Amino acid sequence: MPHLTGTTAGATGTGVRTALGVPGFAHPLVAPAQWAELARPGTPLDWVVLDVAAGPGSRPDPHCLEAAGRLRAAGVRVLGHLDLTYGARVFGDLLSDAHRHLDWYRVDGFLLDRCPTERTGLPEVRRAITTLRAISDTAHIVLGHGRHPHPGYAENADQLVTFAGSWSDYRWSQVAEWTADYPPDRFCHFVHSVPRGHLDEALRIARWQGAATVYFTDRTDRGGRADPWEGMPGYWDEIVSRVGTGVSE
Asked: Domain of life here (predicted)?
C-alpha cells in the first residue's frame, strides 16, 4: 500500500530535518557550472560524492581538485566514490582507491557504492569500514545499497542508502520496520524521474519513511541507458528552497 501523503511537507509530526546528498555529477570539466552551484552559500547539503573515473582515477585530476577544494572551502563534506561491486571488489584495490581519494582530494569520507545487502556480505563490508576508519578516523561512511539491507549493516556505517530508483517505484515503496530503531539522519533516498509537480509528495514520503538525506531529480535513466544522477534537476532552485526551509511552499 502507498504511504500516507495527506500531511504537508516538513510537517513537524515527522520530526525529520531534510538535507541534500548529491550522488555525484558528471566530471567538473563537463559540468563546471553545476559543480560551482553546489558551493553556493546556504545550499542545504549533507554531502557531495566525487567520482572522478569510477573512483579516484589513475592520477590527480586538476578539475576535480578545484571542484573538491571549492566545496571544502564552502564547508561542504566531500565523499570519495568506492565501488564494492556487490562484494566482488578485491580488498587491496578498494584500499588503494581510498588512499588516492584521501591523498589527492582530501575527501571527508566515502560512499561505498553497490554495497551488498545480504547478511553474508556483512563481514567483508565491516572489514572495509574498519580499515577505512583506520586510515581516516573522521571519515563519514555511507553504504550505497539502494534498497533495505540486513539490519546489521546499520551498526557499522554512518548512513545507508535504502532507496535508489525511480519515482514510479518510490511512491509505492514501504520502509523496513527495523529502520524505526534509528534516527532519520542514518538513511538516504535517491529518486530519479520525479516530476516537478510531485516534489512535495516525494519529500513527504522521505519524511514519513524517516530518511533525512535525499536527492530528487527529474532526470531519467532512459530505461537503464543513462545515469540520472550526473546532472542537476531542472527544478534545482525549487528543491533547494523546499529542503532548506524544511517546509512546502
From this structure: Bacteria
